[in-house]
Amino acid sequence: MLKGLIILRQEWTDDIIKGTVKLLSEPVLENNIELSNGIKKATINHLMNKPKLFDGIKFYLEGPDDAININGLSITKDFLKLLISTGDGINLCRAPAPRTVEDFKTFPFHATTQSGVFGCSNIIIFNDNHPPKLQYKMQQLQHKSTKWLIDCIMNFTLT
Description:
- The chain has 159 residues and is of the alpha/beta class.
- The chain has two domains: 10-47, no CATH class; 58-155, 3-Layer(aba) Sandwich (Rossmann fold).
- The chain contains five helices and six strands.
- The chain has helices at 10-18, 33-47, 77-86, 98-101, 146-155, and strands at residues 58-61, 68-70, 73-75, 90-91, 122-126, 141-145.
- The strands form two sheets. It has a four-stranded parallel beta sheet with strand order 4-1-5-6.
- It starts with 9 loop residues before the first helix and ends with a helix.
């Protein structure tokens, strides 16, 4: 989804060959409509040459140090880093400090004005099982959970 790869069902391929195209006119995954809608958004985003989901956002991963399970997926820190870089996000080696992020403004393309991350350019990802006691909720710097990150990918939107 983050690369915008197009998923075609065999029936669609047959329809394309016959000349009766149904591409993206029905759910991609009939048993998971939410994920299906995310795949559709990602595909259309790629076809229209729009920025990738995490374009220009800087991420620092506080966790998970061990593999955790989210939506049936085994998630590790290295896997999250791969997802972030695939979506054109930037993986930071150090946690951003509030004094260093105030001068840099960015408006993530896939965040609406009602989104909690609209105008946020630095996100610290923490393990859902071990949230930090101090969490930033500034416009330019916020803490978000690993589940939030996976949900954003599945829905192809920044909430």
